[in-house]
Amino acid sequence: MGMTLAEKILAKASGKKEVSPGDIVMAKIETAMVHDITGPLTVNTLKKEGIEKVWDNEKIVILFDHQVPADSINAAENHILMRKFVKEQNIKHFYDIREGVCHQVLPEKGHVVPGTVLVGADSHTCTHGAFGAFATGIGSTDMAAVFATGELWFKVPETLYFNITGELKPYVMSKDVILHIIGKVGADGATYKACQFGGETVKNMSISSRMTMTNMAIEMGGKTGLIEPDEKTIQYVKNAMKKHGTERTFEIIKADEDAEYEEVFEIEVNDLEPMIACPHNVDNVKAVREVAGTPIDQVFIGSCTNGRLEDLRIAIEIIEKHGGISDDIRVVVTPASREVMLKAMEEGIIQKFYKYECVVTNPSCSACMGALYGILGPGEVGVATSNRNFRGREGSLDSEVYLVSPATAAACAVKGEITDPRDL
Ligand SMILES: CC(C)[C@H](C(=O)O)[C@@H](O)C(=O)O
Ligand code: SF4
């Protein structure tokens, strides 16, 4: 029987010829990542268990992104603990406060290896499935086991296949596609499933747009999101590895022709409109026009979902075209990484955001989690390009968050209320 992409990667990583959904496998890990919030518990667990040496100091990536620069004594203590661990263990790939969000930095620096298993102590690790890896978020104590042994057990998930066809209309982005899918499937509709996205629409998408899709697989409960690698993937990965001296050999794995999917969803996007996830659930998805006119207080453009160059480009294009942002609101822009920031500077995008009175922050998780800055107060309403809108996600329990694409976020910034970018 044929195997899906997820099954083939897990079979290879566990040295088996064939695996089926439900099998328990022990898989070799190619890349393991922790950040400033989840790393300390991993390190303390290793210490408690008396593990003196990590399994491979070149396969571990440690990165600070959630609370950077340190915004509290507690954050500073976490950073100190992790820097010490990096020195003690001679961890080769350590990115201090300067690089940006883990899920952007990992592929940029060539740490995402197609056809392998990647784990991160962060739930949006599924993002890296955009490169044809089996990538999933795990807990800090599971990560201690990985740091010690380089292996982890998995139950092989069933695969849901989303066949996406048609051409996206102007101002409709991959974020609208994934919001539409989550609205259909539900926040727990893909629990522990591998969510594979394919079809001509995905093939035509940029790598950044693909990452937006896989990033949100977890928002429908997915164990991972996956996209079959193609020429674009290979070029991206090779360039990143070459640029940063992180070369690793890799094999392009594709699903078998006769792979068995638990369910195939046909998603046709020709008539798809800009979509919005309304408070307080990611699957509370509507067309933007249905809630147009809702007053807002803040717009956040950034995060591992939509803080990349193409996102900043479309946002500033819309803001500039319409002469700036509303006086009644504030706009926080956070490039996902230092590399994105530098390119956006070269293109004059950052200067324009400042010109139009947006606040541009250092690359980080920023307002996404309500932990660093851009925090919403009681009664406030935020529009964000990030991936979660649970009660209190961006601050006060009495605040509300609407999730949108960067084009819609920019339209909301221009009007100071929820706005479909086609209606400006
Ligand atoms: C802090 C971290 C554990 C968390 C996650 O795992 O997702 C964060 O990144 C988030 O998006 O809520
Ligand atoms: S940007 Fe948001 S979703 Fe992404 S890792 Fe940071 S806090 Fe989590």
TrEMBL record:
PROSITE patterns: ACONITASE_1. GO terms for molecular function: 3-isopropylmalate dehydratase activity; 4 iron, 4 sulfur cluster binding; metal ion binding. It comes from the Archaea. GO terms for biological process: L-leucine biosynthetic process. Binds 1 [4Fe-4S] cluster per subunit. [4Fe-4S] cluster binds at residues 304, 365, 368. Its cofactor is [4Fe-4S] cluster. Residues 8-291 form the Aconitase/3-isopropylmalate dehydratase large subunit alpha/beta/alpha domain. Keywords: 4Fe-4S, Amino-acid biosynthesis, Branched-chain amino acid biosynthesis, Iron, Iron-sulfur, Leucine biosynthesis, Lyase, Metal-binding. It catalyses: (2R,3S)-3-isopropylmalate = (2S)-2-isopropylmalate. InterPro entries: Acnase/IPM_dHydase_lsu_aba_1/3, Acoase/IPM_deHydtase_lsu_aba, Aconitase_4Fe-4S_BS, Aconitase_4Fe-4S_dom, HAcnase/IPMdehydase_lsu_prok, Homoacnase/IPMdehydase_lsu, IPM_dehydratase_rel_enz, IPMI_cat. Heterodimer of LeuC and LeuD. Catalyzes the isomerization between 2-isopropylmalate and 3-isopropylmalate, via the formation of 2-isopropylmaleate. This is 3-isopropylmalate dehydratase large subunit. It comes from Methanotorris formicicus Mc-S-70.
